[in-house]
Known about the structure:
mainly alpha
Amino acid sequence: MTSLDDPESIRHFQSLCDACQELTTRYHSPSELRLYADGYLHALRRSGSLDSRQQLRLEQLIDRWIMDPSSFIGPDGDISTLYMRHPQGY
Length: 90
């Protein structure tokens, strides 16, 4: 159970990954990414657009993906500045 095989699930995974990566460019923390992903997954669950098996796979994959620091790069391409605010209040 390490991958998605449903095209709709894959689209949701990619959309969520893209949104989280965009949030990191605005210096959002991992906990804020988690909140965003939880909201997205909750809305998806409520809409019923995926069957329960695909929903569960998507949720598990997103959990692992968000917790893995190698999933993200810093806004300037440097992983060491990933979640740190820009010194000039950027």
